[in-house]
Amino acid sequence: MNRNKEIRELLYRRNKKGIKSLALLIDPEKIDKQPSLELLKELSHGLIIDFFLVGGSLVNTNRLDHCLRSLKEVTKGNVPVVLFPGSVMQLSDEADAVLFLSLISGRNPDLLIGQHVLAAPTLSKSKLEVLPVGYMLVNGGASTSVEYMSQTIPIPNNKPDIAVATALAGEFLGLPLFYLDAGSGAKIPVSKKMINAVSREINSPLMVGGGIRSLQEAKDAWNAGADVLVIGNGAEKNPSLITEVLHYAKFYNSSLNVN
C-alpha cells in the first residue's frame, strides 16, 4: 500500500526549518455558527491558515461532511483539512488526512489500539493521508469532554518529566508526530515548561492546543517549542485572535530567512 505522506513531510520540513504553523480547530456541530468561518473569507495580505483540524466528541456523519465541504468552499481547497476524530465513526474522504491518534497519556486500551483496529480496514480503502500521532492529554484546570469521553486521567501540567517520558516512549514505538492537548474548554494552556521539555527531547513535530485565548499565550507556546499551534474555543469567542496570531506567525517565519 503506497500511502501519501504529503502533510507529514510538510510538517517535518517546517519542523527542521523552525517554521511555525497555525491549525484552526473546527467543531462540525458549530460550523454554521462560528464567526471564525466568516473571518476566513476576509483574510488577505498573505494571512492563510496552515491547517484545519475538524472534529468533536459527538459528531454525526452528515454534519461532518457538510463541515468539510464548507471549509473546502471557503478556502477554495487551498488549506489542508485534517480530521481530528473522536471515534471511528468520524471518518470522511471529504478531508485530506486524519490524525490517527493513540492516547499514550492514558491507560485505556481502546484508545491505544482498539479503535485503531476498527478504523484500519476503512482507512486502507480511503484516500486519506494517515498521520500517526502520540496524543497526550494535559490537565488544563478543568474537566474536559475528551477527558470524560476517554475515561483517562490527564498528565499534571506541572509534571513535564512525565510528559517527556511518555513522548519518548511514543517515539521509541515509532510514532512520528505528537500532540500536547489541554482539551477544549481548558482554563489554562499546556505550560511553557512542559512544551519546552518535550520539544527538546523528541525529534518529531509537536502540536500544542487547548486553553489558548490570547496572542501572548500563542507566542509562549511557539517560543517554548510548539511547531503547530491549535486554536479552537479561543477563536470562537474572539475571531480576531486568528488574525493576530497569523500576523505574528508571518512576521516570525519571515525573520527566519528560510526558503
Instruction: Give the structural class.
Output: alpha/beta
In N-to-C order, the SSE pattern is: HEHEHEEHEHHEHEHEHH
Helicity range: 40-55%
Largest sheet strand order: 1-2-3-4-5-6-7-8
Distinct helical segment count: 10
Q: Profile the largest sheet.
A: 8 strands, parallel, barrel
N- to C-terminal separation? 32 Å
Name the shape in a single word. globular
> Unreliable runs, pLDDT <50, ≥5 residues?
none
Strand coverage percent: 15-25%
Number of strands: 8
Output the radius of gyration: 17 Å
Overall residue-averaged pLDDT value:
89
What does this structure look like?
This protein is an alpha/beta fold. Helices cover 43% and strands 16% of the residues. It is built from ten helices and eight strands. Strands 1-2-3-4-5-6-7-8 form an eight-stranded parallel beta barrel, surrounded by seven helices. Helix 7 runs parallel beside helix 8. The longest helix is centred in the middle third of the chain and has 17 residues. The chain is globular and about 40 Å long. The mean pLDDT is 89.
SSE blueprint:
Elements: H1 6-17, E1 21-26, H2 35-42, E2 51-54, H3 61-75, E3 81-83, E4 97-103, H4 109-125, E5 129-137, H5 145-150, H6 160-172, E6 177-181, H7 192-201, E7 206-209, H8 215-224, E8 228-231, H9 233-237, H10 240-255
Parallel strand pairs: 1-2, 1-8, 2-3, 3-4, 4-5, 5-6, 6-7, 7-8
Helix pairs in contact: 6-7, 7-8
